[in-house]
Amino acid sequence: MTLRVMTFNIHKGLNFTSRRHILPEIKHLLQEADPDIIFLQEVQGEHHKRKAKFTDWPEVSPLEYLAGEQWKYHYYGQNCLHDQGHHGNALLSKFPLHEPSNTDISTSNASSRGLLYSIIKQENGSSLHLICTHFGLFKKERKEQFKALNNFIESNIPFHEPLILAGDFNDWRSSALQLLKEELLLTEVFHNLSGQYAKSFPTIVPLLKVDRIYYRGLTCHNGSILHTSKLSDHCPLLAEFE
Questions:
Q1: Which residue range(s) make up the domain with 85?
Q2: 101 burial class (0-12, 13-18, 19+ CB within 10 angstroms)?
């Protein structure tokens, strides 16, 4: 079967300047792209002030609103809790998600981060493992988070079973290449297809290569960047696997 995958940092459902609520436009983009599995970062779980401010704020949770009927299976991992609400990562899937969990990989109270994990059971009895993550802005904290990622994968995911790891790694200097490629034997979609990571941030003039889709145990046919300067501050990435 062919599997379409997207990763997208949706900037809490706000536009680049954070002045306009654009969750309806994001939902339309997701529906048009129609991926089977979506890895989302900076998903607003709840925000009392914004809910009161924006008239088009959904009655259900933002994740339920985005999922609609198209992605019946979804899971939210809360990372950051504050006075107005919380936000985190999320998975949306057309297939049932099994054994979901969210592992805290924060290195300080000022920057809450997590590994959102789940499994899709395959007909042959094996599992497709999914990890959605959003790493920190500083090199020192990312170094510790990559160690935590390495430990999680080695402890929880059998090497012979396929894995997709996607999200916002904030690794614009590609310092994690050795760990992910040489130690975990992961391949990055765009680096494999073109020899370089996708330029996905900021959307107005994409220069930084921070968003990634890694995999192993699968065949990747293609990858594409959706240039959406009016949505979020990150470009969504799409990939097609077999």
A1: 3-241
A2: middle
* Confidence grade of residue 52 (pLDDT, cut at 50, 70, 90): confident
CATH of the domain at 100: 3.60.10.10
Number of domains the chain contains: 1
Distance, first Cα to last Cα, the chain? 6
How does residue 121 score in pLDDT terms, banded at 50, 70 and 90? Answer: very high
Q: Percent of the chain at pLDDT above 90?
A: 62
Could you tell me which of 56, 199, 70, 77 has the C-alpha nearest to residue 133? 77
